Amino acid sequence: MSSYVLLKAALLLHIVGIVIMAGTTFADYFTFRQLLRYLRQDAQKAVAVNIATAKFSQLMSLGMLLLILSGVLMVSVYGHAFTTQIWFRIKMGIVLLILLNGILIARPSMLKLQKLLPSVADNSEAAGRIEVLKNGSAYFTSHSCCCSSLYLR
Fold this sequence. Notes:
The chain is built from five helices and no strands. By secondary structure, it is mainly alpha-helical. The longest helix is centred in the first third of the chain and has 39 residues, at 3-41. It is elongated, with a radius of gyration of 19 Å. Residues 139-153 have low confidence and may be disordered.
C-alpha cells in the first residue's frame, strides 16, 4: 500500500475518532446535567438515565483509541517530520490531559455514582454522598468538554 493511501486512511480514522470522542463527550455532558436535575426531583429517573448512558465511556474510549492509533500511523508515515513543532507538542499535551482526566477523575466518580444511585431512593445518607460526588463530577464534565473543544481547534 502506498504511503499516500495509508496517510489518507489514517487521516480518515483520525477524523472519525475526533467525531466519536467529541460527540460522545458532549452527549455525556448534557445527559449528566439532566441526571443531576432528575436526582434532585426523582431518583428513579436518574437511575434510568444512568443506565441509558452507561456505554458512553466505552464510545469515548473507542474514539480516543482511534485518535491515538491513527495519529501514530500518520506520524510514522510522515517520518516524524512535525513532532518537533510547537503546535504538535501542545496537541499532545491536551491529549494527555484528556486521558488523565478520564482515568483519574471521570472513571472513579462515575463508578461511585453507579454504586450510589440505586440506593439513593431508599437512603438519605447516600443522597448526601451523591451531593459531594456531584461537585467533582460537574468539574469532570465541564473540564472534559472544554478539553474536547480545545482539541477540535
